[in-house]
Amino acid sequence: MSGESGVDAPVAWPVADFAELRVRRMQIKLHRWAAADHGFRFDDVFNFVCDPAVLVMAFERVAGNKGARTAGVDGQRAADVQESGVTAHLNRIRSALKAGTFRPLPVRERMIPKAGAKLRRLGIPTVTDRVVQAALKLVLEPIFEADFRPCSYGFRPNRRAHDAIAEIHLFGSQGYRWVLDADIEACFDRIDHAALMDRVRARVKDKRVLALVKAFLKAGIMTELGERNETTSGTPQGGILSPLLANIALSALDDFAAEQWSSVMTTRRDRERRRHRGLPTWRLVRYADDFVIMVHGTKEHVEELREQVSAVLAPMGLVLSPAKTRIVHLADGFDFLGFRIVRMRKRGTDKWHVYTFIADKPVASLKRKIKTLTQRLSHLDYKIALIRINQILRGWANYFKHAVAKHTMARLHTFVWWRLVRWVMHRHRMTWTAIRRWLRGPQGRWKLIELDGITLFHLGKVPITRYRYRGNSIPSPWPDALSDPIPTA
């Protein structure tokens, strides 16, 4: 970044609370205008990106993210900016943006392991670039949210993975038995820049904003070996703007599904007529680049849909993975977002239901994490280890507590309990008799494990509750009414 200018009048930088209310009011207006006219193209939104309140809010989000501890290619972290002065840093960013001299630096490449001994590329932008990306997202998100379809759930406000699972459960219970379990090959690395920019231009015609978005797409990557590679396609994972841009690109698939649904499958009577003529009805459920298509029809219908989906994705530079895309029947089950969804007969009855279990991979992943923290030769402090184990267990339980998971969680609690007991026994060379004396209460009952004042979280006692399908009733983060009080100073 360069091009500090002193010609502008002094900027009054608002405090965080005032900035949040001002930004929220701006977002509500943008969202209202976008929803009122889906063909409207926004001309002057660059000034919103440069607005002091937006930049303050953007830095607050960057600094509050756990990734703030990681530096980009310039070696600067959010804490370093806070030490040297946030206002001065934001002044430099705003001056460079207004002068048109802002240039994003390449993202720092970080390869992280995936399942199957593969690696996933993460791009770590500089703190300055993250702030500008966050400002762009604050302005662009309410505009494009007005166009995004209800079938999309990933990286969107007020939506979560459980909504996608609930929708799959609903349609699976209504006769949609065949499933196209699809996987887009290297989605974030292959999105065509020209096609993506065309979709952004459909809503935004401000050339300065378009230039900023394109600059981030073309910023390049600094590899772990110190080499700079140009980015001719894709949106590197790790950037604040990347999920929004990916959703804009993949909304082409959402639009295709919505148009098909609204044109020939709108009402229940329309769907029944199609099925009577031997034609399928189907529904798309997408979470970021993971999606399934639920089909009320035959396997041949799903195969035809797979070809149509491939044709829709091709202009965006995306292809379905031949190895991971498969056609399955709901009775055989499939994994999606960590859950195992299967239609099976209820034990002791002749009734069939759709059940949502925990998939095998999340269970294996949890066990690996616990084993790593409780290795026999580990000299990690008990308190630190137990705090980390409890954090992992609570997060895992909160995500999976809506599945049919009571027995799975009870078994996992037993696994964690034994790992901790054997770890303590090995470290202190304790006998089983000594362990029993330590863990037995006055009435001979087993006590919860407590180490250095920290009690082990009991995974088996987590209440299992059903997640209710919300469908089109998911509330908008930007309601029509301006209910928030806007201070005058």
Can you characterise this structure?
Helices cover 46% and strands 13% of the residues. It has helices at residues 16-36, 46-50, 52-64, 78-84, 86-99, 127-145, 161-172, 187-190, 193-201, 207-217, 242-264, 268-276, 299-313, 360-373, 382-400, 406-428, 432-439; strands at 107-113, 119-124, 178-183, 221-222, 228-229, 281-287, 290-296, 326-329, 334-336, 339-345, 352-358, 450-451, 454-455. The radius of gyration is 26 Å and the shape is globular.
Summarize the structure.
The protein has helices at 16-36, 46-50, 52-64, 78-84, 86-99, 127-145, 161-172, 187-190, 193-201, 207-217, 242-264, 268-276, 299-313, 360-373, 382-400, 406-428, 432-439, and strands spanning 107-113, 119-124, 178-183, 221-222, 228-229, 281-287, 290-296, 326-329, 334-336, 339-345, 352-358, 450-451, 454-455.
